[in-house]
Amino acid sequence: MLTKKYDYRRAVTDSDKQEIYKLRYEVYLKEGAIKKNSLGIITDEFDNIGNFEIYGFYEHGILIGSFRIHILRTEACTSPAKSAFPKEIGSYLAQDKIIIDPSKLTLKRDDNGNRERLINLMIIPLVAAQMYQADIVTATARRKHMRLYKRLFYGIEVAEPKIWSTMLLPHGLMVSEFKKNELNILELVPEFRTASETMSELFHF
What span, in angstroms and rounded, lies between the C-alpha atoms of 70 and 128? Predict the structure, then answer.
């Protein structure tokens, strides 16, 4: 079941967003994914454009993670994955596919292994895909993280990792045919099965 110690909030105020930008910086810097900067935050143009929302992930009321979710319904829509991999994303949009593009995955590691936190964080793109009846869910991931998306979302790699945006480490593109795989995804992870019943109010694209 979805544990009560975790909470999910849509970032609405500038204060909410700044807290998430600071957490991104802390986590990405520790991973060696970015350079130090004087502002102590990580943000980019996609925090201000497109059909998107930013979500904070909280443990006992403390921010420990976040996701940014873009939804693409037409070829005029924009998102990080579409900017970095226009040919691949454009081919799905040309087929009138609805795409959920999660980005800026951020998660503080704990001392007891990261699985529980990670699984509960991944509920955010899962429920977004359910709410908007997505055909495709993307993942822009480093090579060593791709196996996570293969396992949890039945993702497949469609573009080789490369350097793009503000990141120092190469990220490739994975896609999951969500409608095709949804039942298998829900069966695979028990926490996923009840999530949509408790989180639907968060999504207002």
Answer: 9
